[in-house]
Amino acid sequence: MTEEHGTDEHRPPVRIERDGVVATVVIDRPKALNALSPDVLRAVADAFDALRAEADAVRGVIVVGEGGRAFVAGADIRSLSTLTPEEGAESARLGHRVAAAIEGFPAPVIACVDGFALGGGLELALACDLIYATESSSFGQPEVRLGLIPGFGGTVRLPRAVGLPLAKELIFTGRRIDAATAEAAGLVARRFPDRDALLAGARATIDEVAENAWTAVALAKRVLVEAAGTPTATATDLEVAGFADAFRTEDMREGVAAFIEKREPEFSGH
Ligand code: CAA
Fold first, then answer.
1. How big is the CA angle at 143 (ends 149 and 91), to the nearest 5 degrees?
2. 156 CB within 6 A, ligand 1
3. How far is residue 61's CA from residue 70's CA, in Å, rounded to a whole number?
4. 123 CB less than 6 Å from ligand 1?
């Protein structure tokens, strides 16, 4: 078996760790700064598919890169170097499949960025619901420096996160911004001094979410994801449908009853 460049053949490039209601998807290819080869992309999509099967027990997912230098330094440039236009399109579709698996996951997904989040790495983070980052992290879409453009959703989700003018500036220049700048731009939700604080902060957020009706959290995520970028009338229709769906859940009956009866709710997830 030939070893993929930058991959330790003894370890799978992606693994899932479980800790209570929190699942962590670890991208483990540190020798290549966790670059997203097709194998890694498929493994990330498979990880979310596997977690979906136990969605009842998982209230939130952390995505993190191994090695302390990078979240993900982009799509794997070696894998891209020989592609035909048709294969390039296929590669982009694979990236979009990963984003769809994350956006379709019925609980919050937090990208914990500790180091470089570049190109496809930033696009992976943008597909997550929140980006938390260490102070020393940096962000950018450097594709034009390679003669490429963002292919895993950067032209779509970066403008939604930071506004069209800054997204254009970042994509046209390929420049990197630091975590403080990314936070000021709205790209990063919270900054942490180091990796331990980053992971603890993400876990604390998921624990806080887990106290709520997870049916409602999943419905809210569905509406937020599906409504993004749609015209106002479409978006409000999606919200009406999600609001109506909340009335189908036992959790909603329990949540409002508990408020009226002045007691703590006991949510069942149904
Ligand atoms: N693909 C493949 N390998 C990568 C990689 C990538 N995106 N990024 C880093 N690596 C590899 C390097 O080739 C190097 O491997 P070797 O040790 O075998 O040579 C190893 O990771 C360490 O990288 P560097 O030696 O370059 O480390 P550095 O500290 O000098 O620089 C860096 C770090 C600035 C992140 C630099 O590695 C870099 O610029 N990486 C590429 C970033 C990039 O252009 N990303 C966009 C990719 S295209 C894309 O993502 C398209 C899309 O939208 C889908």
1. 60
2. no
3. 19
4. yes
Of the residues 4, 66, 103, 123, only one is catalytic, namely 123
Q: Write out the DSSP string of the chain.
A: -PPPTT--TTS-SEEEEEETTEEEEEE--GGGTT-B-HHHHHHHHHHHHHHHTTTTT-SEEEEEESSSSEEE--B-HHHHTT--HHHHHHHHHHHHHHHHHHHTSSS-EEEEE-SEEETHHHHHHHHSSEEEEETT-EEE--GGGGT----SSHHHHHHHHH-HHHHHHHHHH---EEHHHHHHTTS-SEEESSHHHHHHHHHHHHHHHHTS-HHHHHHHHHHHHHHTTS-HHHHHHHHHHHHHHHTTSHHHHHHHHHHHTTS-------
CB neighbours of residue 33 within 10 Å = 21
Give the tens place of pLDDT for each residue, 58-115.
Answer: 999 999 999 999 999 999 999 999 999 999 999 999 999 999 999 999 999 999 999 9
The residue with tokens 């570049």 is: 118
For the CA atoms of 233, 239, 244, 246, what is the dihedral angle to 10 degrees?
A: 180
pTM metric for this prediction: 0.96
CA 130 – ligand 1 centroid, Å: 24
The question of whether 90 is a catalytic residue gets the answer no
Residues of the chain with pLDDT > 70, as a percent, come to: 97
Backbone angles phi, psi at 202, to 5 degrees: -65, -40
CA of 115 to the centre of ligand 1 (A): 12
